Automatic annotation (TrEMBL):
UniProt organism field: Enhygromyxa salina
Chain segments annotated as coiled-coil in the UniProt record: none
Domain FAD-binding residues, every copy: 12-212
InterPro entries per the UniProt record, alphabetical: FAD-bd (IPR002938), FAD/NAD-bd_sf (IPR036188), Flavin-dep_Halogenase_NPB (IPR050816)
GO molecular function, one term: FAD binding
Transmembrane segments annotated in the record for this chain: none
Name under which the protein is recorded: FAD-binding domain-containing protein
Lineage: Bacteria, Pseudomonadati, Myxococcota, Polyangia, Nannocystales
SUPFAM superfamilies: FAD/NAD(P)-binding domain
Pfam families listed in its UniProt record: FAD_binding_3
Keyword set, alphabetical order: Oxidoreductase
Length: 545
């Protein structure tokens, strides 16, 4: 078909999205809201079950996107598990590994106390643990309801990039005449995840230097539910947070999805750990035994599905968006580590950045090479900053509680900018360009991050035999002192900016003893370790695959 005015061929669609998972569905919904014609090509057959994948903890950055662009707030409130922060647990050095959680170093960053304060709790950006198959299915349903054409059983074989008109070849050739099924479009979005279909075709994918990490994970059922085991400072339930169990060169995530399902996995530095990944459990229990309190937490639990293993976690691409009319979104463009589930949030930020370019192209405007070059530069800086941060944690932080605490508090301040976007009236292009760019994507932010890590590293040697047991628990007193930040226009982000100051204050507290240890006072005592007695389960853990 041709345009009657110009004679140029009219594409079948404005945008073809490769991959019908979470990211592909989000892209389709966002583009349909702007009136564009969208096809989503998914390799699975319609009705084929979705497999469980990691990325089960939704951050504030993902939450604001899902609220404004997808309208998923009510669905998440009904089907997600509301989480309130992070818990970091690491073992003391120079003594036998504790069998219970209260025998470990612990830093709890929790907004739980604000739940009881009506002036604060409704003003928080909600975050969730989610069961991914139902979430992914709901997004696909919404994409189709929005008018996107979901083409199931259509694996993309290749993309033929043209000058303003691309051909996407999918499915198997006709067995009789060899004819290939295809469609044409103006833009291609690769949301194929780690398959990186388009990046591999173009030869622009590459490994991440200096970070040799792998991961093993599964979901468990029959996880112990006794409240006494999970209770920590001031009676707060650890399961309401994303829990990190860490040691030299590794960290485990613990994500409570619902009373029947818990996601547990480990990321580790392969230069420091070599579990037998050919075993049925892919080496999971060999890694878990490095943290006996974690094994106790899994006493009696059973894996829901076989253990998964990913041999090479990080990867990168030379660029993620091109003047030729394509973009690589989410894991199709880069991945460094599962920490904080930032991969989904990165995809959300990429979609916000690329959508105006797609709209302009579909209105026959020429792509702005300067804008695209800037977006690629920011992506490059982001990838390198996240690589440096994770390399630092594997080498210096995961097993050193004072360093881990400082970096965790520093990371928390990244939330602040998102409160500039919480209200619908603030979800504007100007605000998004200012507050929703890729994280750590400027030279200045990268320098600040490196400087902070460099000055935090010396505190790794400060472990003196005493347990670090601290918590950031903003309650009624903190709310009273910060009341204006909760209620004055545009002031709320500064509440979270203040959290970064705790990192510096804590550093001075442990080095110079200039003032009381506020985080220790805020935490209060933990329960006695006796309350976390070994579970009454013979054989402790079900270790089948």
């Amino acid at each position: 078909m041709q345009n009657g005015m110009s004679g140029a061929p009219v594409p079948d669609y404005d945008v073809a999205v490769i991959g019908g998972g979470l990211v592909g569905s989000m892209a389709a919904i966002m583009l349909r809201k702007r009136g564009l014609r969208v096809a989503v090509l998914e390799s699975r057959a319609r009705g084929q079950g979705l497999k469980a994948v990691v990325g089960e903890a939704l951050t504030e950055g993902t939450s604001v996107f899902l609220h404004h662009e997808i309208g998923l707030t009510d669905w998440l409130a009904e089907h997600g598990f509301r989480k309130f922060g992070f818990d970091f647990v690491t073992q003391p050095r120079g003594r036998p590994a504790p069998q219970v959680l209260d025998g470990c170093h612990e830093l709890l960053l929790s907004l739980t106390p604000l739940e009881r304060i009506s002036g604060a709790f409704p003003r928080l950006i909600p975050t969730y643990h989610v069961n991914r198959p139902p979430l992914d299915a709901e997004l696909a349903r919404r994409a189709e309801a929005a008018g996107a054409e979901l083409m199931y059983g259509a694996p993309v074989r290749r993309v033929e990039l043209g000058d303003g008109l691309h051909r996407v070849v999918h499915g198997e050739p006709d067995p009789e005449d060899g004819a290939e099924a295809s469609l044409t479009c103006k833009w291609v979005l690769d949301a194929s995840g780690r398959r990186r279909m388009l990046a591999r075709q173009l030869g622009i994918t590459r490994p991440v230097e200096g970070l040799e990490t792998a991961a093993i994970w599964t979901r468990f059922t029959k996880v112990r539910r006794d409240d006494a085991f999970w209770s920590t400072f001031r009676g707060i339930d650890r399961r309401r947070h994303t829990i990190h169990f860490s040691g030299p060169g590794y960290w485990f995530w613990w994500i409570h999805i619902d009373d029947d399902t818990t996601s547990v996995g480990v990321s580790f530095d392969k230069s420091q750990h070599q579990p037998d990944v050919k075993a049925d459990d892919r080496g999971f229990w060999a890694m878990a035994e490095k943290f006996p309190a974690l094994v106790a937490a899994l006493a009696g639990a059973e894996p829901v599905e076989p253990f998964s293993y990913l041999a090479n976690l990080p990867h990168a691409t030379e660029h993620w968006v091109s003047t030729r009319g394509y973009a690589l979104i989410g894991d199709a463009s880069a991945f460094v580590d599962a920490l904080y589930s930032v991969g989904i949030e990165m995809a959300c930020r990429q979609l916000v950045a690329v959508t105006p370019l797609i709209e302009a192209a579909c209105a026959d405007a020429q792509p702005c090479a300067k804008t695209i070059a800037q977006l690629n530069r920011e992506h490059e800086l982001m990838q390198d900053s996240v690589r440096l941060l994770n390399k630092f944690k594997y080498e210096h932080a995961w097993h050193q509680p004072h360093v881990l605490m400082q970096t965790a508090l520093y990371d928390l301040a990244e939330i602040a900018e998102l409160y500039h976007l919480q209200a619908a009236k603030h979800w504007t292009r100007a605000n998004l360009e200012r507050h929703y760019r890729l994280q750590w994507s400027s030279e200045a932010r990268r320098r600040k991050l490196v400087r902070f890590m460099t000055t935090a590293a010396p505190d790794g040697a400060r472990e003196d035999g005493r347990l670090l047991a601290k918590a950031l628990l903003p309650g009624r007193l903190v709310y009273t002192f910060t009341w204006p930040l909760w209620h004055l226009p545009k002031a709320r982000p500064y509440f979270f900016i203040i959290t970064r100051a705790w990192g510096y204050m804590e550093r001075l507290t442990q080095r110079l003893r200039l003032w009381p240890d506020f985080l220790k006072l805020m935490a209060g005592p933990r329960r006695s370790a006796a309350a976390q007695a070994e579970p009454e389960v013979e054989g402790a853990v079900e270790r089948g695959s």
